[in-house]
Amino acid sequence: MSQPEPPFVLTRPDSWLSGVIFASPHSGCDYPDWFLKDTRLPVSTLRSSEDAFVDRLIAPASRYGAVTLASRVPRCIVDLNRGADEIDPVIVRGVPRHPLNQRTLAGLGVIPRVVSHGRVIHDAPMDRAEAERRIDRCWRPYHQALGALISEARTRFGQAILIDMHSMPHDSLTHLQGLRPDMVLGNRHGLSASARVSDAVCRAVEDGGWRIRRNSPFSGAYICSAYGRPAQNIHVVQLEIDRSLYMDERSITPRPDFDVFAARIEQVIARLASLTTDLSGGRIAAE
């Protein structure tokens, strides 16, 4: 098994201003030959599970004083927004059939069984050794890097603010009543980020001209729950963007006006890159 080393792109600014990190764990699109030989699906179908082009959207953050971390690994190989123990026994042999969460039961564990619309990735289960190789070579390095960045930010600035960037299929919003949001902020209903940090992110999005909703239909997954510790001034928000705003979801190609959308997102990023929490006064500010 070969995989680019490291399995992510980490970009630091010339001067890290306040401990803000923009991350994209689902935009990886490096599909190795060993994987493509072992799947029934074409790349065009596999890519339906990507948060395609989100890494491009967050790339300007380093110019404004924030760190970026983007996966190279496709989500259908290893899902970096799942726990390493969220292993689906239907796709991995030798895994105890212990009680599973709903994501894993649906085939969306750390080693996914399906991509969007329930399309099965592999014809047969894999050995547990193969699952562990993927986790060791892809999942662990990404989370070691992310954990180290959060620890460094906390030490240097007294705070860490992780904005975990994702994209959502437009169809995932069809069940909502009223005007659909353009973006959804998840903070585990306040468990992974303070109201002040969450409010600041929402204001930046709304001032950019978009509608935003909180915690529905996405409240944040593994990364929010594993790292968000507001009481320790470590804040993690998950920000989902409606894919139809910037890409053609069928062809997985940028819309003709992608650069216009990206420029608008850059203004939000510029505002959030220097987000600071005032520990003494409890005030949130963007410098």
Characteristics of this structure?
287 residues; Aminopeptidase; two-stranded antiparallel sheet; 8 helices; globular
In short:
The chain is α/β, with parallel strands linked by helices.
CATH architecture: 3-Layer(aba) Sandwich
Structural class: alpha/beta
- Rg from Cα: 18 Å
Number of strands: 13
| Annotated CATH topology | Aminopeptidase
* Overall form: globular
State the strand order across the main sheet. Answer: 1-3-2-6-9-7-8
- Portion of residues within helices: 25-40%
Q: Averaging pLDDT over every residue, what do you get? A: 93
Oligomer: single chain
CATH level 1 name: Alpha Beta
Percentage of residues in strands: 15-25%
> N-to-C terminal Cα separation, in Å?
45 Å
Quick one: biggest sheet? 7 strands, mixed
Summed up, the helix count is 8
Return the string of H and E elements: EEHHHEHEEHEEHEHEEEHEE
How many separate domains make up the residues? 1
Explain this structure to me?
This protein is an alpha/beta fold and 287 residues long. The protein has a single domain, classed as Zn-dependent exopeptidases (Aminopeptidase), CATH 3.40.630. 28% of the residues lie in helices and 19% in strands. The chain contains eight helices and 13 strands. The strands form four sheets. The chain has a seven-stranded mixed β-sheet with strand order 1-3-2-6-9-7-8, with helices on both faces. Strands 4-5 form a two-stranded antiparallel sheet. Strands 10-11 form a two-stranded antiparallel sheet.
